[in-house]
Amino acid sequence: MLAATLLFVAITHAQQPNPPGQVEKGEKPVNEAYLFAHMTHEDYGRLYYSVSLDGLHWYRLNDGKRVFENYQGHPDITQGPDGTYYIAGNTSDSSPDINIWRSSDLIKWEKHTTYRPDLSSTPGYENALQRIGAPKLFYDEASKQFVMSWHTPHEEGTKEDPERYWASQRTLYVTSTDLKTFSAPPKRLLDWDMGTIDVFLRHAEGKYWAIIKDETYPTLDWVTGKTIRIASSDDLLGPYDNLSDPISPNFREAPMLIPSPDDSAWYLYYEQYPGVSYGLSVADSLGGPWYQISGYTFFADWDKYSLPAKVRHGHMRVISKTEYNALVEGFGIDKSGK
């Protein structure tokens, strides 16, 4: 009986090692601070900020209120060659327009332009549905151009098969040198015959990477459905291949990727929808292998990472300590963790 009790105590207090990528006390991090631009469960599609100094523990700014009233969409931010930040959004998936704002400091935003995709000349999309999902921005230093991507379906759901709508989502893109004039027509980014949403691009480790949500519904015939996966390419616009096995469990979406403070590991966050929790997978290379760590349970002796309750998806990025201090000073920070 005593042995069983001791075993139970040991199990309930078991702790996994701390995530890799953190700096020792007194050491200067390569990546000094992080911004999470996100929405909330109660105020879906509007812009909120949380920040972190270690990429693991996140705290709300602005007393949990919106940081920019005019923004609507799924927040995604990129930084251009002159240091200007850009954020893309749309008032709803059914809106025909993608709105882009710019900022020099991530605090004050002003309208940059509005773009309306014309899919009439996109092969296979002559009869596409007027839906624009989660526009994303990426600036490629090598080619000195922006890539703006989003997902659009080409089949309506039916009563018998409502998932057909989601399975028909494909990722489209345009390029631009100034986010005012855009290439035409929009093209498909990925060649696979599978649903994809929430796709964003990154350049690291000498390759381009597409981080995606596999939007096909999970079944025994498609066990990878509704998971986060990664593919790579030698070229910005593909073709992307080497599609990974799932990095997340099923029914996860809205991936976000940041390098660790010491730049030795990658932290890949994803949401268990709708607004249930966040997962975090870690690897020392984008090609994997990846493993999941425990967090967002609100049990402090178990969590290795934490986010404010009921935050929803958006965009995480590295910022400087100077930018972090300015955001904290401008908006105020809530360290209560609520």
From TrEMBL:
GO terms for molecular function: hydrolase activity. Keywords: Hydrolase. It comes from the Bacteria. InterPro entries: GH43_arabinanases, Glyco_hydro_beta-prop_sf. This is Glycosyl hydrolase family 43. It comes from Alteromonas pelagimontana.
